[in-house]
Amino acid sequence: MANNTSWLFDLRGELKDNKGIVLGLLGLVLTLVIWVTLTYGIQPILPRQTLPSPGRVLGAFGDLYRDNDLIQNITLSLALNYGGYIKAILWGIPIGYLIGLIPMFRGLFQKQVDAIRFLPITALIGLFIIWFGIGSTMKINFLAFGIFIYLLPTMIVRVDEVDDVYVKTVHTLGASKFQTFYSVYLPSVLSKIIEDIRVLTAISWTYIIVIETTGSEGGLGQLIYSAAQRQGRVDKTFALLIIIMLIGVFQDRMFAYLDRKFFPYKYQVNKSYDKDKNLKEITLWSAITDFMVTAFTYIFLGIYVLLAINEVFGFLGELKPFEYFFGERQWVIHFMGASIILYQAYSLYKKYISK
Questions:
Q1: pLDDT at 270 exceeding the cut of 80
Q2: CB 208 within 8 A of CB 219
Q3: Nearest-angstrom CA–CA distance, 334 and 43
Q4: CA 272/CA 24 separation, integer angstroms
Q5: What is the pLDDT of residues 314-339, one digit of tens each?
Q6: CB of 221 within 8 A of CB of 208?
Q7: What percent of the chain is modeled with pLDDT above 90?
Q8: Could you give the C-alpha distances from 140 to 77, 100, 137, 333, in angstroms and in order?
């Protein structure tokens, strides 16, 4: 019996087959049992003002939906999140390549990059208000800067980590500087930086909650502050935190999907491969996720095109969902929609035309 369960306590042991799923479900059940135990009864171990019961938190979801425009606030925060990511990536990756690859730029800006990591980002809110006002533009730029100051130093490190053997190989084959960048530095760095971007998801939500308390444009941060804490509704606070965690898990899975989509060579498809190659294995969950994302992508594109046409011609009357759900941040959805359409068109071109 001891041998059958010894794997549970192996140092850095692997969870094979469905054992990880089973343990994960048991962990959720155990957490719920502890939560119920601490909040059960007329006089619970922890007072309801400190820790609401699971039932109260579950009921708070309905209150948020009915009284606080929950869906609209979620979409506003999502647009802010993705808008910050888009701007941070569009700035951070090119600048990271310049500083990491070109000695002149490294000499000019390396010290500033090393120092910028220590900026207390929340102390800069006042400056961003002065520069951009208190609207969506300020909030997206603030979030983008918060992601940028973590992304830029990481980009430079990833450039330094590229193995010289690949660079020397393409030089031996007569590659130019651009060909070296395109065939070695671009795929090698991007395949690693996407995992760093996944880690930044948690940091981004911290900044979102902070910045959304400025102004009154809505969002989950504003909802936590106004509808939950000011009203003394701790159950609503817990419900909103659960929503943020679920969104974070969803975003993490999305980045994992993009990692498999753009860098498939990092993953092991055939289990007969040598494990020493340190490739990741595509799990059943990953395959299911891929199918769901593919189906969702085409559904999203169909709905997006329909609603985008409606924004111009108004065939749905006065109903304009983009304006209602995203406000001034709807450019983020248009950018994402256009990017997905271009990528899908390019994929179809490569698959059926350019052979």
A1: no
A2: yes
A3: 52
A4: 27
A5: 787 778 888 888 888 899 999 998 99
A6: yes
A7: 32
A8: 10, 26, 5, 14
Yes or no: say if 143 and 207 are a contact pair by the CB < 8 Å rule.
yes
pLDDT in tens, 94-152: 999 999 999 999 999 999 998 988 888 888 999 999 999 888 899 999 999 999 999 99
Lookup: tokens for 279 = 């490739």
Give the E-state strand segments of 132-270 in sequence order.
267-268
DSSP class of residue 230 equals T
Q: At what angle do helices 284-313 and 234-262 cross, to 10 degrees?
A: 100
The whole-number average pLDDT for the span 278-304 is 75
**Residue 311: closest CA among 324, 298, 329:** 324
**Rounded to whole angstroms, how far apart are CA atoms 238 and 57?**
6
Residue 155 β-bridge partners:
none
Predicted structure pTM score: 0.84
Backbone angles phi, psi at 256, to 5 degrees: -65, -40
Token pair of 263 as six digits: 């860098």
| pLDDT exceeds 60 at position 43 | yes
Adjacent-strand bridge partners of 267: 280
At a CB cut-off of 8 Å and minimum separation 6, what does 285 contact?
Answer: none
Kindly state the helix (H) or strand (E) to which residue 13 belongs, with its residue range: none
CA distance 298 to 138: 32
pLDDT tens-digit series, residues 1-33? 445 777 777 777 777 767 777 888 899 899 999
Give φ, ψ of 242 to 5 degrees: -65, -40
| Tokens (6 digits) for 154 | 């990481």
- Residue 268's DSSP bridge partners are 281
Task: State both tokens at 283.
Answer: 């799990």
Of the candidates 112, 203, 190, 107, the one whose C-alpha atom is nearest the C-alpha of residue 153 is: 112
Number of H helices, E strands in the chain: 15, 2
Tokens at 74, concatenated: 């979620």
Total length of the chain: 355
